[in-house]
Amino acid sequence: MNIDITDFEQFKVVKLTGEVDLHNSREVKNVLLDEVDKQHHVLVDFSELDYIDSSGMATLVEAFNRSKTKQVQFHIVGAVGAPLQVLKLTKLDSVFSLLDSIEQAKG
Amino acid sequence: MTSIISIDNLDAHYDDRQVLFDVNLQVNPGEIMVIMGGSGSGKSTLLKHLLALKKPTQGKIQIDGHDIGSISSKELKELRKKMGVAFQGGALLSSLTVGDNVRLPLEHNTNLDTQTIDIMVRLKLELMNLAGFENLMPAELSGGMLKRAGLARAVIMDPRILCFDEPSAGLDPVTSVELDELILKLREAMNMTMIIVTHELESAFKIADRIMVLFDGKVAMVGTPDEIRNSDDKRIQNLINRKSRDEEVDGDAYLKRLVTGD
């Protein structure tokens, strides 16, 4: 798994590549909470994510919840395939803000 | 495709009594394999071998590249983290709440934060329609709820392989259908390989990619639900049509059993 952080407009884009699972979800959590705590708006880029397990999903829930407290934007971008299926299975697609592309975050 | 589970020429015994005879089975990743057969056909014994609770007396079992007959205890521990088991009655620890039962594997095998674990437990309870039951004790749940709580615990680590013993036994028809749908959803989203032992025909035909039929410890057939339905094997048709076994009685042998017990 790789985590890349880039800038787009007012957002920090946190791109997750590969597989998020029990072994590395803590790393994802630290990065996301760190950005949210710095009052950054966050786009979590799922477009190159092959797999995310429930520890990864729980981590996103924690970060998303923190973003509400910190009043920053938090979107998941480009979820397809297995990660999208997991979002639907856990009904988290009704909790998170899901965007098709990074461009969509502009408007 | 490489099999995730491979059973070759497996024989199994309880002391002198042989219960499995030359069993062969290949299971593909993401496949739902249903093991079907009457009581005493060897289904549970086969499951015990897949969980490495029993070692083969003859033959070979490979799971995710590991030979179960010669696996080291360290490798077995790692392999078990990738395998979930849901037992017939749920097998929850009666002194722990539902939530504490479900979180047990995470507490033992990971170093995740408590809050992450809390959310993972609740996600799985939501999935099993058990939201809000976290703080109840197992004794306060119905049979169907216990089964779903057992399933929540079995999948809490997102296993690659799920073994499920009699998912629908003792459930009412509606709950049983709901559980079947949940099994299919889990496979679709998590791409889990599932070994499901059942004697519920309706459930088996609905969820299985392939079905293995066992009779008296021997594989009668492995095939898709359609192939099983259309089989001209009389015993399989009897099983499907719920006919009792109509075995010919050997009078002399019967008399001997009654008189001498042999």
Task: Set down the secondary structure blueprint.
The complex is a heterodimer of chains A (107) and B (262).
Chain A: E1 2-8, E2 11-20, H1 25-37, E3 41-45, E4 49-52, H2 54-70, E5 74-77, H3 81-89, E6 97-99
Parallel strand pairs in A: 2-3, 2-4, 3-5, 5-6
Antiparallel strand pairs in A: 1-2
Helix pairs in contact in A: 1-2
Chain B: E1 5-14, E2 17-27, E3 32-36, H1 43-50, E4 58-63, E5 66-67, H2 73-81, E6 83-86, H3 98-109, H4 114-127, H5 143-154, E7 161-165, H6 173-190, E8 193-198, H7 201-207, E9 210-215, E10 218-223, H8 225-229, H9 234-240, H10 251-260
Parallel strand pairs in B: 3-8, 3-9, 6-7, 7-8
Antiparallel strand pairs in B: 1-2, 1-4, 4-5, 9-10
Helix pairs in contact in B: 3-4, 3-5, 4-5
Question: What are its keywords?
Answer:
heterodimer; A: 107 residues; alpha/beta; Transcription Regulator spoIIAA; 6-stranded mixed sheet; globular; B: 262 residues; Rossmann fold; 4-stranded antiparallel sheet; 10 helices; 23% strand
Characterization of the model:
- The complex is a heterodimer of chains A (107) and B (262).
- Chain A has 107 residues and is an alpha/beta fold.
- Chain A has a single domain (2-105), classed as STAS domain (Transcription Regulator spoIIAA, 2-Layer Sandwich).
- Chain A has three helices and six strands, in the order E-E-H-E-E-H-E-H-E.
- In chain A, helix 1 runs parallel beside helix 2 (54-70).
- Chain A is globular.
- The N and C termini of chain A lie far apart (30 Å).
- The model of chain A has no long low-confidence stretch (mean pLDDT 93).
- With 262 residues, chain B is of the alpha/beta class.
- Chain B has a domain at 5-82 and 159-260: Rossmann fold.
- Chain B contains ten helices and ten strands.
- In chain B, helix 3 packs parallel to helix 5 (143-154) and helix 4 (114-127) crosses helix 5 (143-154).
- Chain B starts with a strand and ends with a helix.
- The model of chain B has no long low-confidence stretch (mean pLDDT 88).
- Classes of the chains: A alpha/beta (107), B alpha/beta (262).
- At the A-B interface, helix 1, helix 2 and helix 3 of A face helix 4 and helix 6 of B.
